[in-house]
Design a protein that fits this description.
The protein is mostly beta strands. 4% of the residues lie in helices and 50% in strands.
Length: 246
């Protein structure tokens, strides 16, 4: 008896950090992150799915609502009705590519709504090939952020306290604006009760926050590093958005 096995490995979480490579198992998707408008020409985006292997790759496209919880974990719910996908499935030729158009057709919105538009590899029928082995399939998730015109984020620091871990602060922030943002693209300034201050930005900030997204109308609790000599009790924090708000 020949053994054929299919493994489905979800690559969504890694892909949505955007720092990870968009290439998995011979498939690339571009872009991995994009902003959409609720209507008009800005409501649609073309996704280029490239197959770097010699074998044709069948894929499906599906959509989920993506909610970022306070601890950085995610809640996902099916949301295919909010998008028009053309085509909804296809076979990407070996060493070739196919373009899929995604368009928001959901209800009018007053603030950013985040979605995961996922390219899902499908198993290939190998029953007549005489081959025995393993098929490894990946779901490659892209971030679609649908935002109303002229929306802006407004990140407010609510509380700052010493973390249970040394040389870290536990910071609670909320986004009181109407647009999402990423908490690791701006600059954090920490001020101790004795007046000493420290700045966290750039590569150090990138490494400090695993899940940077914060939606409007939501709260995040994050841990940020300070120096070992920084007096954490009674410290305050200030977050400054980059000029684009993203």
């Amino acid at each position: 008896m020949k053994l054929k096995m299919v493994f489905l490995l979800r690559g969504i979480a890694a892909a949505m950090l955007f720092a990870a490579s968009p290439a998995h198992a011979g498939v690339r998707v571009e872009p991995m992150s994009y902003d959409l408008s609720p209507s008009g020409t800005g409501a649609r985006q073309d996704l280029r799915v490239e197959n770097t292997s010699a074998q044709p790759t069948p894929v499906d496209v599906f959509v989920e609502r993506r909610e970022i919880l306070p601890d950085g974990s995610e809640k996902r719910t099916p949301a295919d009705d909010d998008f028009l996908i053309f085509p909804p499935q296809g076979i990407v030729p070996g060493n070739g590519f196919q373009t899929f158009r995604v368009q928001y057709v959901g209800a009018p919105i007053t603030r950013t709504v985040l979605y995961s538009v996922t390219i899902a590899q499908q198993p290939v029928d190998m029953s007549g090939s005489g081959d025995s082995g393993v098929q490894v399939l990946f779901n490659l998730g892209t971030l679609a952020a649908v935002s109303p015109p002229n929306s802006e984020p407004n990140v407010v620091v609510e509380t700052v306290a010493p973390s249970a871990e040394a040389a870290k602060l536990t910071v609670t922030v909320s986004n009181e604006g109407s647009r999402y943002t990423r908490l690791r693209t701006g600059r954090w300034t920490f001020t101790a009760a004795n007046g000493a201050s420290e700045i966290l930005e750039g590569e150090a900030l990138q490494k400090a926050i695993a899940q940077p997204l914060i939606e409007p109308g939501t709260r995040r609790v994050i841990e940020l590093p300070v120096s070992a000599s920084f007096v954490r009790e009674g410290a305050t924090a200030k977050y400054e958005l980059p000029s684009t708000g993203q």
